[in-house]
């Protein structure tokens, strides 16, 4: 089951990142967002995007739950961060899937300026903060370097995105940061890096010349 969750998380990260980066590139090149955004109303691509986002967030929450013992490794701080992220991903998943279902059934989106929009915005921000915190807490772990560095990279990517936005460039978009979050969480499910350690029973290696 854990392997299935990891595959689902990696697939979700790839799909969600592709949608987000395509949206960023489309806006930068044309001045208009892609059909997957809410700018063009409810359409098939918008519904597919919502479904991909919702299922991806569920998979991320699943990976954090399934590999909880490996992530925590006895650390209370990491456990708190991990559980908080699970809640955030579940809220995001519920929001995305609910909006997709309502949009498909009625042709109307949930009110982005109301409670739904407020909860989604706060959860989205907490997802970034929690992922960065988890990344830094995992840095000392040699078996978690890939997810740790991927999650830590969110911070400079976020700062760079803000600088790009301040400069007035149309390429400023949260898609790049979101991609790092997605893959950083998904990488947690990958097998840990093996450390080549010499068995204590093996004696010193003799020089063939000196003996």
Provide a concise account of the structure shown.
The chain has 211 residues and is mostly helical. The chain is 69% helix and 0% strand.
Molecular structure report:
- The chain is an all-alpha fold.
- The protein contains 8 helices and no strands.
- The chain has helices at 2-30, 44-66, 68-72, 76-106, 115-138, 145-152, 154-166, 175-186.
- α1 (2-30) crosses α2 (44-66), α4 (76-106) packs antiparallel against α5 and α5 (115-138) crosses α8.
- The longest helix has 31 residues, at 76-106.
- It starts with a helix and ends in a 25-residue tail after the last helix.
- The model is unreliable at 195-211 (pLDDT under 50).
Strand content: under 5%
Q: On the 0-100 scale, what is the average pLDDT? A: 88
SSE sequence, one letter per element:
HHHHHHHH
- How many runs of DSSP E, i.e. beta strands? 0
Rg estimate, integer Å: 21 Å
The helix content, as a percent range, equals 55-70%
- Give the overall form: globular
Q: Termini, distance in Å? A: 52 Å
Low-confidence stretches: 195-211
Largest sheet: none
Structural class: mainly alpha
**Quaternary status:** single chain
Number of helices: 8
What is this structure's SSE topology?
Layout: H1 2-30, H2 44-66, H3 68-72, H4 76-106, H5 115-138, H6 145-152, H7 154-166, H8 175-186
Helix pairs in contact: 1-2, 1-8, 2-4, 4-5, 5-6, 5-8, 6-8, 7-8
Which tags fit this structure?
211 residues, disordered C terminus
């Amino acid at each position: 089951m854990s392997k299935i969750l990891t595959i689902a998380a990696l697939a979700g990260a790839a799909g969600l990142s592709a949608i987000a980066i395509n949206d960023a590139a489309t806006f930068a090149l044309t001045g208009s967002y892609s059909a997957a955004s809410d700018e063009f109303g409810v359409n098939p691509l918008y519904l597919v995007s919502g479904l991909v986002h919702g299922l991806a967030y569920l998979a991320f929450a699943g990976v954090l739950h399934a590999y909880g013992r490996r992530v925590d490794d006895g650390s209370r701080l990491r456990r708190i961060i991990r559980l908080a992220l699970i809640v955030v991903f579940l809220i995001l998943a519920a929001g995305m899937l609910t909006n997709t279902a309502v949009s498909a059934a009625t042709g109307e989106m949930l009110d982005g300026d109301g409670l739904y929009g407020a909860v989604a915005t706060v959860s989205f921000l907490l997802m970034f903060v929690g992922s960065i915190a988890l990344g830094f807490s995992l840095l000392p772990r040699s078996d978690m370097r890939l997810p740790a560095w991927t999650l830590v990279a969110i911070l400079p990517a976020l700062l760079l995105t803000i600088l790009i936005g301040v400069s007035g460039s149309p390429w400023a978009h949260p898609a790049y940061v979101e991609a790092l979050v997605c893959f950083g969480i998904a990488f947690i499910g990958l097998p840990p890096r093996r450390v080549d350690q010499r068995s204590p029973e093996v004696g010193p290696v003799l020089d063939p010349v000196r003996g």
